[in-house]
Structure formats: C-alpha cells, structure tokens
Amino acid sequence: MTMKIGVVGASGYSGGEILRLLASHSQFKPEYISAGSNAGELITSIHPHLLSYSGKRFSVTEIVDINACDLVFLALPHGESAKLVAGINEKVKVVDLGADFRLHSSAKWSQYYGGEHAGTWTYGLPELKGYREKISTSSRIANPGCYATSIQLGIAPIISEKLIDSSDIVVVAASGTTGAGRSAKINLLGSEVMNSLSSYKFGGVHQHTPEIEENLAFINSDEVRVSFTPILAPMPRGILSTITAKLHTKTSTKQVREIFEKYFENEQFVALLPEGQLPRTSSVVGSNSIHLQVAVDDHTQRIVVSAAIDNLGKGAASQAIQNANIIYGLPEDDGLSAMGVAG
Q1: Domains along the chain?
Q2: Of these four, 54, 159, 198, 276, which has the most CB atoms within 10 Å of its CB?
Q3: pTM, full prediction
C-alpha cells in the first residue's frame, strides 16, 4: 500500500526532517516535494545530508499537485497553511505542522497570532488520553507546537488526577535555534547565540500558551493557567522544559511516579527515566521520544517535571509522521525511532 506523499515547505528545517524520516518509511514515499522561494533548486543544495534525494529539485507549490497526493504534510510558517487549505480536495489527508488549526478560541488566536482564525482541526498529540482515537478517524490533523508537546506531556498525568492547582502552572523551557525557523535573523547568527542564553517573548506572550491551556483544560475540565517563559539556547535542536505546579495534598515522589507510569503505560515514545537520571536534550535528538523525570519538592509541596524532546522530532516532523501512521492504521513507529542519535 504505497501512497503518494507530498511535503509542502520542504526547504525548512521541519520539512527537511520529514524528508529524512520518510526515506526509511515502508509506505509513505514523497513524490511531490515543494518549496516557496527555493523552488527549482536541488534538494541537496539546502539539505546536503539527504543524499537519497540527490538530483531531485524542489517543485513550485501548486494546488493541482497537492490534490494529486494521498497525504500531504504542510511545513509552512504560521498563517500560510490556511491560505492553501480551501483549495485542497477533501480526499487528500493533511497533517499541518503550523499553528493555523490548533486553537479552538478565535479570540485567543487573535490575541496571540493576529488575523482571522482559520478554524480547528483534530489535535495531533496521541499520548494524551482520548486523542489517539480522534486522530485515527480524522483526515485533517493539527500537529502540536514543539514547546506545547513537551509541556503537555510533562503535566498531563498529574493534571488528569486533579492533584495540582491547575491555575498556577509555571514553565521555563529552553529551545535550540531551529525552533525559530530557517529565515536569516541577526539574533540567531552563531556569533550571537554561542556562549549565551536569553529569554524571549517574555511576560507570558508566547503563542503556545493558549494551545497548552486549551488541551490541558479538556483533560480535567478545570481552569488552566500557564506562566511560560521560553529561552533561546546555544544549540541547534532540542527542548528542555521544567514544569512546576502546587499540589493540593501532600504527595510523595513515589506516588507521582506511579501516576506517570500508569498514564503512559505502553506508550513506546514516552520514557520515565529511573530515579536520579535527568533528561538531556542530546539523548533525544533524531528521535520521536520524550524523556521525563518527576519529583516532589517537599519544601514547597510543588511537583517538578523535567521533559526533553527534539523540537524537530517529537516537536514537529516525527510527530507528524506518527499522526499520519495512526490515520492509516500503520504501526506508529513506521519510519520512526524511540532512540536518539547522541554520540
């Protein structure tokens, strides 16, 4: 059952990672590979590591070519997917890596992104309880944001048990520079980033905030408020999130670990590390995994969670492929790995 796959926006970091992963997929073979300003250029001129695509060039993005595909991955900047979707035939399955269809609230879209809200698609985070079933019957998937993935999976087990004050979740998370996309920016130059950490979108204005709050509220129906501070880290890829929340009642680390173990039972891409071992971004690069560690700060009675993912993997490309695998009833690990490539 080989299908014709399209990757739109394939010259970006996430698009390139989709191409790399699809090269080893048993069923998904990318035949339509398009880019915007890079149309006509050799794929290997932008992604020199993708030697299996040698001699192939990026195509122009055209609706007629998208509609000739069975499945399309949209790896476009926020706001661009919505411009294309109206012309895409209903028979074409779509996984959108952008934010255009993640939010339910049009008011929140306007507040955090600006412009008109395009609508809401099935949210593609399979490890959240109940979401896998929705993905399996959908043909339009909104792939989660990278920060949002690490934060939601890091707190979902404990929020589902209503053991925390969900109106007081505090997150500080650091991301590699690929999370900002491929376009040239002075603050992302190597000489600017190296040997430096800096916060950005400071003061609770990061666009993943409403996405996190909406989906966590669906889990336990309580109000969810997240104070989120992102940090730019001097590395290409990876996210490390530290999440804390006030516990309602005295709870031990052992009890919290048991809750996490039960919630993520049989989830092949979620690893609760042994006690004493902390997540490292280098351990998840190239994988579809999230590594977690949990503890209770007895002094403040707050739960503390550390979560590491690859922002281009579980935070983008590999999660998109996992969602597509679910849509087609394929093994979720087809083309994917739970192991990182750290040397």
Answers
A1: 3-143+316-327 (3.40.50.720), 147-309 (3.30.360.10)
A2: 159
A3: 0.95
